[in-house]
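Support case: user asked for a sample of complex input and structure output to validate their parser. Sending the pair below.
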Amino acid sequence: MSITFPQKATGSPVAAQLVARIALRAEAVLIPVGALLAGFVAFSLFLLFLGKSPVEFFALVWKGGFSSAFSWQNTLSRVAPLVLAALCVALPARLGLVVIGGEGAIVLGGLAAAVTGTLVVGLPSAMGMVLMAVAAMCLGGLWIGAIGALRIKRGVNETIASLLMAYIAIALLNHFVEGPFRDPASLNKPSTAPIETALQVGDMPFVAAHWGVLAGIVACLLCWVLIERTTIGFAARIAGDNVRAAQIQGLPVSKLVIGFTALGGACAGLGGYFEVAAVHGSANASLIAGYGYTGILVAFLARHNPLVIIPVAVLLAGFEASGGLIQRRMDLPDATVLVFEGMVFIIILLSEALYGRLRIFNPGLRGAS
Amino acid sequence: MEPVEIGLWGVPLAILGGAIRVSTPFIFVSLGECLTERSGRINLGLEGTLVFGAISGYAVAYETGNPFLGVLAAALAGACFGLLHGWICKFKGVNDIAVGIAMMLFGMGLAFFFGKPYIQPQAPDLPAIPFGWWSDTPQVQAALQVNILFILGAILAVAMAWMFKSTRVGLTVRVVGDSTDAARAMGINPNSVRLLSTAAGGALAGIGGAYLSLYYPGSWTEGVSSGQGLMAIALVIFARWNPINCFWAALLFGGTGALGPALQSVGISEGYYLFFAAPYVLTLILLIMTSSPDRAMQGAPLELSLTK
C-alpha cells in the first residue's frame, strides 16, 4: 500500500489531497488505537511473567466492567468524575500547558458543595442544587485558574505547581472535615454533615447512572464546540502552537490561559460536586479517589480531544470498576489496574514519536530520517 | 531513660532533629534531579522512582537481612527507571514532562503491586551515628541521631559541585545541558549523556526511597512518600541547579516538614493538617518567588524544557 499511494496520487491533485487527508485522519486514529493495543500486549506479557492468565484478566474486565446492568452501573458511576477530570487536563493542554492537579479541584469542589449544602437548607431544592454546583465550580475554577495565572504572570511551572496545589487541597479537606465542618455524628470516618435528601442527585431514567454522567458528556460537547468551532478556541489553538506568534498577532494570551485553566478547574470541581451530591452524600476522605490522576491518562489517550474523552473514559472506568473482581478472582493486588494504566500511558507517549514518520500515513515522506 | 522536661525548647530541637531526619530523601532526589537537569532534561517521575526505591530497598533488606543490600537494590531499581525515562525521551516529538508523569504513575503502581506482601513484616533498619553522646538530655540525643545516608548525601553534594566545576565529566554534562549543537560539534552524543545522567539521577532518587522505608519513617506503607519526590524537583529550581544549594534547601524543607510533628510533640495539635501542608505551601511560595516571567532563569541549563 505504501508504494501504490504516491503513484496514484500523482494522477490528479484533487485525489492526492483527498488521499493525504484520509491518511492524516487514519494516522490520528490508528496510532493511538495501536498504542492502546500495544499497551494491552505489554500488560499481558507482564501477567504471563507473573504466571497469571491475561485471557482471564481481560475476561474479568469485561465481566466486571461491561457485561451486565450491574457492572455498567459500576462503570458509569466512575465515568462522570473521570470525564470531568480529563477536561481539566485537556483544556489547558490545548494551550500547551500540562496541568495535572485536577485531583485538588475535585476534592475542593466536593468540599464546597457539601458546605454549601448545609447553608441552603431553607431554599427550594432546585435552587440549592444549583448553588451547590456553582460553589463547587467556582472553587475548582479559582484553584486551577490560579495555576494558569501563576504560569502566565510569574512563569511558574504549571505541572509542579498544580501537583503541589493538589497536596495542599487534600490537606485543606482533611483540616476542614476533621475540624470546623465536622459532623459530630461521623465517628469512624470524619465527614461534613450529610446533605438533605432533597438536594441529592438521583439516577437518570432508563440508565443505571446518576445525572453527573450526562453532565460530563454535555461538558465534553460544549468544550469541543468551544475549541473547534469558536474564535476563542481558534485563538487558544494558535497560542498553544506558538505563544510568540499569538502574542504578535495581538491575541489575549494571558486571558486565554487563565480562562482555559479556570474552565478546566470548574469542570473538575463539578466532578467533585457530583461525587458529593450523587455518590457519597457528604464530603470526606472518599473524595480522594485518584480520579484526578486517571483523568490525566484519559486526556492523553484522547489526545486532548473532548469528544474522544467520552469513550476513553468509559473504557478506563470499566477497567477500574473491575478492579475488585480481579483482586478476588485472580489473587492480584488492587494496584494491578494502576500498573496497567502506567504501561498504557508510557506506550501512548512513546507513540507520539510516530506521527509524521510512518510512510503509510504520509505518502509524501521520502526515505527514513 | 526518662524524658527531661525542656518545655518549648523542644520545638526548635525537634525541628533540628526532624530537619536532619526528613531532609535526607530531599537531598538525594534533588541531587539526582540536579544532575539530570544539568544535562538538559527534566525527570518529573522521580516521585515514582522514590516510591519504587522504597519498596525494592525494603524487600531486599527484608529478604537478605542486610539494609545496605537494600540500598543497593533501590539504587539499581532507580537506575532502571532512569534508563527507561531517558530512552523514551530520546525520540523526537516525545514530551519529557508528560513522560515523567507517566513514569510517576507507573512507578507508584508497580511499587504498590509488588509491595502488598511487605506491609506487615519488619525489615532491618539502617544504622545511625549518635552524635548526641555528650548530652544527658534524651531529646538532644534523639535529635542528633544522624543516619549514614545523611552524611553520604552531604559528601555527595560537595562531590557533585566539584564534578560540575572541575572535571571532564561535569563539563560534558554542562555542555550538553546548555547547547545540544555545541555538544554535537565537540563530538559528544547528547542522547547518551542525557541517558546516563537520567539513569544516575534515578539511582540517587532510589537511594532516597530506601532511606524512607529503611530508616525514617522506617517501614513500607503505600503512603511512604507524600510528594517528597515532587517537592525535591521544585527545590532544584529554588537551588538554582547548584548541588551545594540543593543540600541547604533540602535541610530547610526537612525542617518545615518536621514543624507539624514538632508542635504536636509539645501538645499543640490545633490545625495539625495545616502544618502538614506547610512543606507544600513553602515549596509553592519559593517556586513563585524564584520563577521569573521573562523565562530567563539565572543558572538554568539552556536546553531545559522546563524553562524554555
